[in-house]
Amino acid sequence: MIRAVEKIRDRLIHAARALDSARVPYAVADGNAVAAWVSRVDEAAVRNTRDVDILLRRLDFEAAKRALDEVGFIYHRVASLGQAGGLDLFLDGPDTTACDAVHIVFATEKIRADSPLPLPDISESEEADQFRVLTLHALIRMKLTAFRDKDRTRLRDLIEVGLLGRSILDPLPPGLRPRMPLLFDTPQG
Question: Is 12 helix (H, G, I), strand (E, B) or coil?
Fold first, then answer.
């Protein structure tokens, strides 16, 4: 179990260093971004995640592809039920699966046609420990937009450590505001 968690962290750092070296703008998103924020408050409250999600601008994709290829990642595109057009990912070696990959999501684009908002832009990121991460507000909007069970769980993690409170409702886009009370009213899911 410990090795599995370490492998994900290693994959994240390896990909981030490759993108940094190639000067490709990016931001870590999804579970690893939540973990980075939660760890700033309470390392014991960090929840493990299965994969690495990186936010890129579509115009930087080819440069990212070259940078990740140079350090051993293997580009692969798979059909995805949730994402229009499929999912772009970089396998962490030739004998690996989509679980052992860096998943790419594109800034300012909707993941699904019915998503209430597009993903944040790369400009909404900041330096974390060893990589760039979405700002807290951008991450919250991203999780509220997706609002799958795992997204609600991650948002509750942010609530539990005090990073997310009811005051977030005011600056949220109107389409996302109704989703927040559910999280506060059902803290255990």
Answer: helix
Q: pLDDT of 125-134, one tens digit each?
A: 999 989 999 9
| 154, two tokens | 């991650």
Q: Token match 């937009």: residue?
A: 145
Bridge partners (DSSP) of residue 105 are: 55
Question: With 60 as the cut, is the pLDDT of residue 117 above it?
Answer: yes
CA–CA gap between residue 155 and residue 184 (Å, rounded): 10
3-state SS class at 85? coil
pTM above 0.70, yes or no: yes
Q: How far apart are CA 174 and CA 28, in angstroms?
A: 26
Alpha carbon distance 13, 131 (integer Å): 7
Spell out the domains of the chain, with CATH numbers in brackets.
2-135 (3.30.460)
Tell me the C-alpha to C-alpha distance, in Å, between residue 61 and each of 22, 107, 152, 165, 174: 12, 11, 29, 35, 31
